[in-house]
Write a structure and sequence with these properties.
about 0% strand, 7 helices, elongated
Length: about 180
């Protein structure tokens, strides 16, 4: 019986995880970017894909397919898991956001201008949370990322989008 090791059979070129990862990195990232349409998510999922692939490397059998196809299959599984978790997170945010928004709106926005209050209400729950942690509580990006269990890049992206929405709302109210 033939045991699968980190090295390929003598007749094939040296097949190491490092060489496979290096040669397939752009393809895996491109595939995940196409699926998610979000660079930071694609970057995070690419890292998760290669982490999972490294753990499973000893079970890779080149007779069953190419390393590239094997990595893309892992990437697809990783992306599907992310989409399912993201869907659950969005539903939770919607449920919690709708129930709490009505009760907490007056307390949370006390002392804010009507325009700022309206702008904050238009943000998603995730955007409001990032604004609260980064701006109101003055946490740094790393701390915020750990609290929200997302990447620092995702924190920056959410904060940037939230502040851009608020700025647009304030500009719109100044004109009106």
């Amino acid at each position: 019986m033939h045991a699968v090791t980190l090295e390929a059979p003598p007749q094939a070129s040296a097949l190491t995880f490092a060489s496979v990862a290096e040669s397939c990195l752009d393809d895996v990232y491109g595939y995940l970017l196409y699926l998610t349409k979000n660079r930071s998510v694609a970057e995070d999922l690419t890292g998760e894909t290669f982490e999972a692939a490294l753990r499973k490397w000893r079970r890779f059998d080149p007779r069953r397919g190419t390393p590239r196809a094997w990595l893309i299959a892992i990437a697809r599984s990783t992306a599907l898991d992310w989409f399912r978790a993201d869907g659950r997170r969005r539903k939770r945010e919607e449920r919690v956001g709708a129930a709490e928004a009505h009760h907490a709106a007056h307390e949370a926005f006390e002392g804010f201008s009507p325009a700022l209050e309206a702008g904050l209400r238009e943000l998603t729950a995730g955007e409001r949370e990032v604004v609260a942690l980064r701006v109101v509580l003055d946490l740094d990006g790393e701390e915020t990322a750990r609290l929200l269990d997302i990447s620092p890049t995702a924190v920056s992206t959410r904060l940037h989008r939230a502040l851009a929405k608020l700025e647009e709302r304030m500009r719109h109210d100044d004109v009106a």
